[in-house]
Amino acid sequence: MTANPTHTALWPAPLAGGGAGPTGAVDATVQVSGSKSVTNRALVLAALASEPGWLRRPLRSRDSLLMTGALRAMGVGIEEGVGPDGSGEAWRVISSGLQGPATVDVGNAGTVMRFLPPVATLADGPIRFDGNPRSYERPLHGVIDALPLTLHGGGALDGGPVEIDASSSSQFVSVLLISGPRFNQGLEVQHTGSLPPSMPHIRMTVDMLRAVGAQVDTPESGGEPNVWRVTPGALLGRDITIEPDLSNAQLFLAAALVTGGKVVIPDWLAHTTQPGDALRDIFTQMGGSYELTEKRLEFTGSGSIHGIDVDLGEVDELTPGIAAVAAFADSPSTLRGVAHLRLHETDRLAVLTKEINELGGDVTETADGLHIRPRRLHGGIFHTYDDHRMAAVDAIIGLAVEGVQIENVATTAKTLPDFPELWAERLGA
Ligand SMILES: O=C(O)C1=C[C@@H](OP(=O)(O)O)[C@@H](O)[C@H](O)C1
Ligand SMILES: C=C(OP(=O)(O)O)C(=O)O
């Protein structure tokens, strides 16, 4: 919990049903904006491709705009357009070689601070990286030593075998794989530590690489355990539509659970590598039910919420939203396997414990997660420590608890543009 709560702007979290009563059941259809993880991977892959590509319905949030800003600074053309078939807003990405000198602001975006240094080795000229104070504290050692940093690329890199310990972030594997096809010898990544967290994000990287023509061997496709291989080769330009962000859809599913209501999320794909897909199972165990058709997910809360004992190591970014729901359950919950959340945008285990307890909760930090004993909560100020997912927790709690105020709700713009308006309009007054 390194950043102090210095922002004073307070946002009164809307009660479900507009204050008519703390139990107003939500009934909403919510078109969730594009996935941060998919958008930023698609941008990097398009920038490394040998022909132009399209991203349709890209996410326009702080993290994805940091990525477009960085790639543009390195000479990549990213133009506004309407997509080849005329439908939907799109970005056309044209890359004719990466160039320095350039300065890249990584903000506090893991996908930017970790994905771009290997890309910068392919640039002709120096690329300087800097970011928010918190970006100096987040682990980068799988990629580079630390920020600030200047990389003097020579237009090419040999690649070959590399050993890394990715037990503090799956992004260390993803970043090396993404640039791998462009290295002279490709890349062989051997992970040396305990299981990396967030494996679905590594699968997302592999799937997206294969979709642009890369050859990738993985432990899951019959390769050795903990070894990923990428063959050198040109990447194709593709026309891809960005999926809705299921980790942000979590807020709305949580709203259905907490209020005993119903939420429909259009465009939830039957097959996706996003970790948010695990919510169908986790939130069903906690008392909801769902129907998934080709076009949408309909999720319904039953009015009661059950505690859960679950290892969230594979789906770590869902932990804050699950913790918020667990605070309203009829039995305690234990969330395990997420010690590395201490290294995210803030120390999420410490913040969740402190801030939920300040609203009357009873949360204990464990070595690798949280133990949550539900209690009657009361209003108060929830500090967000510049972490979008902490603001989301508080918005969920505020649906059912009067007088909850969120400090610096604007931090949600990291991955979810216009959150306060969307939340109030869809679920509040
Ligand atoms: O590759 C990605 O897009 C991400 C990987 C995960 O990071 P960690 O493996 O560091 O938890 C996740 O928490 C983050 O939000 C996005
Ligand atoms: C951990 C997260 O982000 P980042 O991509 O900055 O690591 C997150 O969005 O929950």
UniProtKB/TrEMBL annotation:
Catalytic reaction equation(s): 3-phosphoshikimate + phosphoenolpyruvate = 5-O-(1-carboxyvinyl)-3-phosphoshikimate + phosphate
CC per GO annotation: cytoplasm
Binding site for phosphoenolpyruvate: 36, 110, 138, 171, 348, 389, 414
Enzyme class: transferase
Single GO MF annotation: 3-phosphoshikimate 1-carboxyvinyltransferase activity
Pfam families (alphabetical): EPSP_synthase
Coiled-coil stretches: none
Active site feature: 317 (proton acceptor)
InterPro entries in the record: Enolpyruvate_Tfrase_dom, Enolpyruvate_Tfrase_sf, EPSP_synthase, EPSP_synthase_CS, RNA3'P_cycl/enolpyr_Trfase_a/b
Residue sites binding 3-phosphoshikimate per the record: 36-37, 41, 169-171, 198, 317, 344
NCBIfam families the UniProt entry points to: aroA (TIGR01356)
Record family assignment: Belongs to the EPSP synthase family.
Role played: Catalyzes the transfer of the enolpyruvyl moiety of phosphoenolpyruvate (PEP) to the 5-hydroxyl of shikimate-3-phosphate (S3P) to produce enolpyruvyl shikimate-3-phosphate and inorganic phosphate.
The protein's name: 3-phosphoshikimate 1-carboxyvinyltransferase
Organism: Streptomyces capitiformicae
